[in-house]
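Entry for the shared binder. Reason: the reviewer on the internal report wants the predicted structure included alongside the sequence.
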Amino acid sequence: MDTEIELKFLVSEAVIPSIPALITQFAKTVKNKPARNLQNAYFDTPSRELRALDIGLRTRCCDGICEQTIKLAGENVGGLHQRPEYNLPIDGNRPQLHDFDASIWPHGVQVDALADNLYPLFSTNFIRRTWLVETQAGTEIEVVLDKGEVSANANVEPICELEVELVKGERSELFSLAEKLIDNLPLRMGYYSKAARGYRLADDQPLKASKEIGLVPLSNDDSQERALEKCLSYGIAFVQKHEQCYFQKPTLKTLKRVTDGVSLIRHSLWLFSDIVEKQATERLRGELKWLLSELSWVETAIQLKTFTSKKHAYYKKINAAPELTQVIGDLKSIQPSIDDVQAIFTSTRYNLLLLDLTIWLTERGWRQSWGQAQLQAGEQPIHDLAARLLDYDWQEMKELVEPQQPLASEQYLQLKQRLERNLLSGCCLGALFDESLRMSFRAPWLDIVHGTFELFTLDYLGQLCQGNESEQFIKIQAWLTQKTDSLLSAMEQSREATRDVQPYWRD
């Protein structure tokens, strides 16, 4: 068995000529292997039994020689892929499962039934260029450039990937090479494997943006340290998923999901302050703040799009005032373009941030400042701590919305960011508790947050109307006041409902 440890990057054809020189600068020696045409077929059963077990089964043929490979469930953090891998020679291109040692299969797997039901699901065909790099410290790293396509059911996607895999030696040297590549090339860290892309093609299930941030899949037997790892890994994956979604179909809501993921990462660093010292994450938090600032215009852009959508109730009112329509059009025209946003995602700073997060997570960077107290706290079951962590947020949320007198629009707008931040604790820890109780508790709070988003829309539109005393604008302002009052009434009902629900984390 080998354990594959590699970093994957997505590159454009334009950067390919620069790769050999960069590798040479980094290495003590470089061996350039002949290019090969690799033809691969991926197998599964009609019910996707292997996929359900996170097992990949592949045959690969090159120059008349074939091998079969099984990759078991592993870890994927940022662009770092770590999976146990088993390779065996075969005659022909049909997998022979019984050739593998029986001990590699998860308990309960019926190998005979699997073998009988296998069929080729999708294929990849690409030219591979390979460089074997030896560093001054003696670490060996394989650098491969794959250019070709993945295909299934007459659907085809291009492949243009650069992978750096640790053959032997120090993982830190792998990260150093990755940093040099990011410093010098416009590339992106690749989260999805060729197999993941192939499954989506085969099942006609394109990557789609999530509707919300969701819950981190914690287990009751997770320690606090393991919970931290899962929260960070979830947040990084969420960011990278929606980065990829944006390249496939650029929308403002997809960008909003990117900012949601970044916010979850930042919140996790704060939430687990028992084991993560603030000083130890100062640089990471600064870079996360930078990324959020780069995308801070997204919510306003969503408002402007809302105003001009023919499907929205606001459209007729706004369209009746050409001057206001012109103002909105001018504001939309100065928003960053799709190319501007994609330039962020291929920038050195953004990809170094992803790499730094990946390194900090995989190397457990928070442990560098640990003493005995942090060690003990890290080992504590997260279920025992979750109530305390959620109680802290609960007290703050009660203070924010408990006053008996009705809140004005300005007060709700001031609460928006704090409410969103506090609800992130539920995203991090909520999976540990009963789903129905959790949903009942969160529902009115989510209604309030959604209400503040619409209040922000109405308030922003009102600001655009200020200073214009024309009859059309006066009518719009009266309509805005009416909509705001109606929305505030509904939000007050939700605020009242928060007093009737019990915290789901208390037995």
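Summary line for the report: Residues 38 and 401 are 61 Å apart (CA to CA).
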